[in-house]
Amino acid sequence: MQKTIHFALFLFLVTGMLFTGCEKTSTGTEEEVSGSLEESLGVETEETSEAVNFEDFNGTLEETEGSSSSESTYKDGTYSENTSYMSPAGQDTVGVSLTLKDGVITAVSIQNLATNEASIAYQNLFADGISSVVVGKSIDSLGSIGAVNGASLTPVGFNAAVKAIMADAQA
Going by DSSP bridges, is the β-strand pair 77-87/90-101 parallel, antiparallel, or unpaired? Predict the structure, then answer.
């Protein structure tokens, strides 16, 4: 019993010393604390009052934006592909239609071609959510779409369809 009391006192003292060692020593303003920290680390800072004229950059930005949209490598139009993928129920098929304008997806529709009840449900979930994921994005920037609304296998077929549509839509 006496050993337990001694051990508890020891822990109490050690904990107290730890908290006193972590005591805040600086009460200056943020600038003073930052300055003293920089001085102690040997960091030199430079204050500049140089103004940046953002109007100089506007013309360049507008020119860049204008040139990229007119040089799409894809023909405008609506393209459709049916692709298959494996699910626990076996091979499933999904239909994908994308409408492109200047290489940007303006519309997407999914045709549910599954025959298994669970696959049909997942393709419907995917169809309900895919529009918010891809519409308004460049087809080149899509990458690989992952799970949408809990459907994690339908995107496999969707991604394959997008690759085929990219080939179909080449200018």
Answer: antiparallel
